[in-house]
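Posting for a labmate who doesn't have an account.
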Amino acid sequence: MAKTEGIKILADNRRARFKYHLLDTFEAGIVLTGSEVKSAKAGQIQLGDAYASLNNGEIWLHNAHISAYLQANRQNHEPMSVRKLLLHRAEIDKLVGKTREKGQTLIPTKVYLKNGRIKVEIALAKGKQDHDKRETIKNRELDREARQAMMKRE
């Protein structure tokens, strides 16, 4: 859980950068119950297979797993429930037009705490082909080798 400029990252979807070309990002609020907020602040959130969808002019987050809060007993939440994301109408209208294009989808890239509120960064993404993924791996390995060579020189 890294902390940068008053922002505490609660969950990061690093796999999204590997599977998708991230074209544009948006910051969205998220509607959560009390036990979901407690659990998310404790870092008990996973975005592995999560995605966002547009439905009736609203954006919904699917497959984001927020673990049950142990002290919540009866008022606990469902870990895999669908959650509403909060964006401005202009942003939603822009996303509606963009996601109608072939192959573009909305993927949550991180969940973080900003000024006491839980925010979700969603990205407009286009799926990578297998050759793009291989190129990403190759570039990552070349960068790693270059860093190691620089460290050996010092």
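Reply:
Got it, the structure tokens are right above this. The longest strand covers residues 20-30.
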